[in-house]
Design brief:
- With about 180 residues, the protein is of the alpha/beta class.
- Helices cover about 45% and strands about 15% of the residues.
- It contains 8 helices and 6 strands; from the N terminus they run βαβαβαβαββαααα.
- The chain has helices at about 20-30, 45-55, 75-80, 90-100, 130-140, 140-150, 155-165, 170-180; strands spanning about 5-10, 35-40, 60-65, 80-85, 105, 125.
- The protein has a 6-stranded parallel β-sheet, with helices on both faces.
- Helix 1 (about 20-30) packs across helix 5 (about 130-140) and helix 4 packs across helix 7 (about 155-165).
- The longest helix is centred in the first third of the chain and has 13 residues, at about 20-30.
- The protein is globular, with a radius of gyration of 16 Å.
- The N and C termini lie far apart (about 55 Å).
């Protein structure tokens, strides 16, 4: 069976809750779910996350690839099945959606305004609280895995950016008009 490829991209800081993702990966691995997670980014929480990964024996399931920018991220985004940001989301979800990746995040009301673009079972899936057990459940839910693997999310995700005005030229114009 092909691995389910999960991607996280962002600063490795506490409010991103990457530890919740790592603990959820452990639960999936313990249930023989074929999964690999690539973590793009650096931050003050990185060493703690690597220690947690090693403690849980996930060195061959979770890859810390460091900070990547521009074209360096293309292969990671293009080869992934889902983008998981377990904590507070911001503009990184627009980045993921622009690659056609559905977003998986918490249902807690802790997000930046960009989260309004996310629609459950459309371009996103939500898990409860900051619970690794529930995140693992959402990730392994057969309907979600099959749907993510078989549905072409590319158009759905990209169209959600267009419909909500998150194209670079529109965002630039909005920003400039806000300064005037």
């Amino acid at each position: 069976t092909k691995n389910f490829l999960i991607l996280f991209s962002g600063r490795l800081i506490r409010n991103k809750k990457v530890d919740v993702l790592i603990n959820a990966i452990k639960l999936l691995v313990d249930q023989d779910i074929p999964v690999i997670c690539n973590i793009i980014g650096n931050g003050e929480h990185k060493n703690e996350l690597i220690i947690l990964t090693n403690k849980l024996g996930l060195q061959n399931k979770i890859n810390f690839v460091g900070a990547k920018y521009g074209d360096e991220v293309d292969n990671y985004f293009l080869s992934s099945d889902a983008f998981v940001l377990p904590g507070k989301v911001g503009l990184s979800i627009i980045h993921a959606l622009s690659y056609g990746l559905p977003v998986i995040t918490t249902s807690l009301p802790i997000h930046s305004p960009e989260s309004a673009i996310l629609k459950n079972n459309h371009n996103a899936f939500f898990y409860d609280d900051l619970c690794p057990i529930d995140l693992a459940k959402v990730l392994k839910n057969k309907n979600n895995l099959i749907k993510i693997k078989e549905v072409d999310y590319k158009d759905i995700c990209i169209n959600s950016i267009i419909e909500n005005g998150y194209l670079p030229n529109i965002m630039k114009e909005t920003f400039i008009n806000g300064l005037i």
